[in-house]
Write a structure and sequence with these properties.
The chain is of the alpha+beta class and 412 residues long. The protein has helices at 3-32, 45-48, 53-59, 78-82, 94-106, 149-185, 190-220, 234-244, 246-251, 270-286, 337-343, 349-359; strands spanning 63-67, 73-76, 86-87, 90-91, 110-117, 126-136, 140-147, 230-233, 255-260, 265-268, 293-301, 308-314, 363-369, 373-381.
Amino acid sequence: MDVNAAVAAAAAIAGLCTGVIAMLAFRWSERDQARPTRSSMRPDINAVLPPGVDTVLSVLRSSAVVLDEGDAVVKASSAAYALGLVRGGKLSVEPMLHMARDTRRDGEIRQVELDLPRRGTGRGEALAVSARVAPLGSRLVLLLVEDLTEARRIEAVRRDFVANVSHELKTPVGAISLLSEAVMDASDDPEAVSRFAGRMQIEAARLISLVQELIDLSRVQNDDPLEDAEPVRVDTLVAEAIDRCRHTATSKQITMAAGGTADLRVWGNRGQLAAALGNLVENAVNYSPARTRVGIAARRVTAPGGDLIEIAVTDQGIGIPEKDRERIFERFYRVDPARSRATGGTGLGLAIVKHVAASHGGEVSVWSSEGQGSTFTLRLPEAAAQTPATAPAPARPLLDPEPVIPAPEVLP
């Protein structure tokens, strides 16, 4: 559902609930007008609220607050306390309090969107809410508050995603257009044509990679359970990931070594798992200095819901700052955009890894220290043991004492 439609639907539901509560309060308000005000005592909630209103408020997803004529809180939902709207028996948000007083005075329904500070987090993040105030009888005022923070975040992610896709597609397409013009102008210079054609191939490959990653992401981002899953050998996935990065690693004299427990299997889609592990290994190689080591190790770990297979990819690269670690799995988020473009990264690789892990019932985590390197760990459910008749042909053991790619120098 579109974010704007979701917000509009939430506002409509809030309005409908306000109307229902107002109708429940209609007859009650007639006899309430003759009652004397007793500000010196706090009557029971069920005696103060109109019949049925307390039941309606208890099932609302919105944060609900009912104020009396003295601005004291007669009823407040647990969500209202969680958002910090009510403190010490009073409504703690001044703009909402002013709205309630104005509505009590003229009987008009009011609605406003506010950004409230998060209390106690120390991070200064704003809490986006939509507040709706309506009269409830002649003495009470009803406040319904919807938390829009997540909807705002999703909308911001959507805008950033569209902007980033547009930019990433525009760059290689623009370069190919310019290079094609250069080729036409240099038609009588074979050397120039060859040089421009080589650049066109690079930009075309970049464009193809981006489009393919967008396709891969669209297939896995819903985190839907797998329909066609099978046991997949981990050592086969590791061998494919290493082979995918062999050329880049050789050019940088980076040693890639595989190790850990042999003959492990995970349950899932072979293509998606190969893409996820390949992205982790490719990142490790791209962000590692020359003449360093990238290690891939797998092991079985015991978990309450069943054994898991951990595949760890460790590098000796530049590391990830602490402030960026929570965001590196977001689509198009890059710690160093300039370096990412230099290495050909699109910012989608880790997002694909996260969604593949989720769709397989697993997770991915990261440990990193600036200047020392990073370790990305992919945890996936282990596939059930197979009988000899159904087991696939044996593959090379994962534990390999020799580096897959030899290097002139290996750091300790």
